[in-house]
Design a protein that fits this description.
The complex is a heterodimer. Chain A is α/β, with parallel strands linked by helices. Helices cover 30% and strands 23% of the residues of chain A. Chain A has helices spanning 56-63, 86-93, 113-123, 130-143, 160-172, 190-207, 218-224, 242-247, 252-260, 266-270, and strands spanning 5-18, 28-41, 45-49, 71-76, 79-80, 96-99, 178-182, 210-215, 227-232, 235-241, 312-315, 318-320. Chain A has an eight-stranded mixed sheet, with helices on both faces. In chain A, strands 2-1-4-5 form a four-stranded antiparallel sheet. In chain A, helix 4 crosses helix 5. Chain A is globular. The two termini of chain A are 28 Å apart. Chain B is of the alpha/beta class. Helix content of chain B is 35%, strand content 23%. An eight-stranded mixed sheet of chain B has the order 6-7-8-3-9-10-12-11, with helices on both faces. In chain B, strands 2-1-4-5 form a four-stranded antiparallel sheet. In chain B, strand 1 and strand 2 form a beta hairpin. In chain B, helix 4 (110-122) packs across helix 5 (126-139), helix 5 (126-139) crosses helix 7 (158-170) and helix 7 (158-170) runs parallel beside helix 8. The longest helix of chain B is centred in the middle third of the chain and has 18 residues, at 188-205. Chain B is globular and about 65 Å long. The relative contact order of chain B is 0.14. The chains are: A alpha/beta, B alpha/beta.
Chain lengths: 325, 328
Amino acid sequence: MRSELILEVRSLVKHFDIGGGLLGRGRAVAKAVDGVSFTLHRGETLGLVGESGCGKTTLARCVLQLERPTAGQVLFEGRDLTRLSEGALRPIRRRLQVIFQDPYRSLNPRMTVGQVIAEPLAVHAIAADRRRRSERVGELLAQVGLGPQHASRYPHELSGGQRQRVGIARALALEPSVIVCDEPVSALDVSIQAQIVNLLDELQQSLGLAYLFVAHDLAIVRHLAHRVAVMYLGKIVEIADRDTLYATPRHPYAQALLAAAPIPDPLADAARERPVLRGEVPSPLAPPPGCTFHPRCPIAIPECAEQVPPLREVAAVHWAACLRA
Amino acid sequence: MAPLLAVRDLRTEFATRGGVVRAVTGVSWDVNEGETVALVGESGCGKSVSALSVMRLIEGPAGRIVGGRVLFKGRDLLALSEAEMQRVRGREIAMVFQEPMTSLNPVLSIGRQLTEGPEIHLGLAPAAARARAIELLAMVGIPDAARRLRQYPHQLSGGMRQRLMIAMALACSPSLLLADEPTTALDVTIQAQILELLRDLTQRLGAALLLITHDLGVVARYADRVNVMYAGRIVEQARARPLYASPCHPYTIGLLRSVPRLDEPRRECLEAIGGQPPDLGRLPRGCAFEPRCGARVDRCTVERPDLEVIAPEHSAACWQAARACDLS
């Protein structure tokens, strides 16, 4: 049985007005997120994969209300965040945290690691006295595999992997139930990526966290996610349980993404069929008509240029937006 | 046959406020005509500095090539005058960088950037250089070449910009192309397009390719031979298939184990390499990988291992290589 529903995104839309030419001529709207729905349950990881410009980061920011969506709902622990004021959002943000891709740019260089981690505790008036706060910082450092000696260091004195651990400790400080992870390991070295992936995994098991895990590395996503959604040009084109999606992808874009990912073994890689997808991701300012993937699709038929394929259940709990899936 | 490029005992250092950083400390590797060789390693391992040293593009006065030889077609590039070196760059050895936007000139038209090389190096007249530019754009798969010549780099997508970089690099038909993380900034499906393009074109033009990357999957797919670097040194050197089938250096073994693979069953836990890469300004006396190594013995802390032949065309710099190789 599924655990309790904790986050539900319904028909989320985020359009960006791109200021066009003089006198408002040629104004354009980029449909960065164009009607996305999904659910996330307690203790679960939903992987969100896609290429740059597919809207996955905008979607993550809309979930966090760092961007206010144009339409749709973000139901977190039962409340629609899109209707809440900044003030009303503040206590909710304790429970909905984020880890960014580049831990260096997301940590204040003038604050020590201890101060970085203690800041949310102070802002939310948790562990009010100084001694309690420093104890909590010590606990959090230990939880992410750092030592008490790291509390007095500055971010530039740490390696990339250690900085990402600090970013995770800060996110954990307020005991969230959901953490949005936006490409949390893609800026790290290969040998460090596995350390952070394992840490995220352990933390989920010990704390019952749910992750919305945004990434482009399909192998990392397969390792961490329970369910996976594939995005293309602002829409989810396929969503299924991890094993189902990786074993039997139904959308041609998901199939192409999986085929394009190289395998670190020359023999195994040479044995695979790997058709190279032609063309590029179209601009969200001028998406193609019908299915936005049809100009690049190896199995497109004339109808694909006319009809927008709905996300439909192609097998049990396996959804794909393709006329031919 | 002598290799096209033979790097011998190359040493490059940088003077920093914290002292001397030995970015490359005595590396030797070859590229034969027409083959693809990989320099693979993580950030700070010295792979990019190695390539920049070959091109003599290390920025002084902080950076300096302090030793070694770079023999290209038998000539030591490190002994050439700057004027002679300029005739090598672009003409005989060309480079493709990771981030096309930082290596393209934003205020020059695409046409100008493509015709400059052929005009200077090959002495082509403007009309002939323009014809060459159109030919190059078509070759790298940029449609509508004549119109593109009047455009500027910002009007191209990331993938198209990288195609343009490749066109520029190939403009004078070099015999060696150095590609430094050529697809790292690109999306998975575009990455595949660009790598296939690089492979097809170098094969068609008979150029050799040095592929600098951190991506073990890319290396597996494209390289004939591989040099694995760690902390400024080559720790393992082999043909690609034996390297992946039976890696001998504990670092290589650890790297290959730490990446999840889509072709294998999902594992409960990734086998991470513990610890952090070393500070190049304060390298240990012994093996630089020793603090993170599961196979270390006492000797590793006091004596640095050199590359030793383990099998034909397969070398590793590890006191325990023979044992590690059996275990892998």
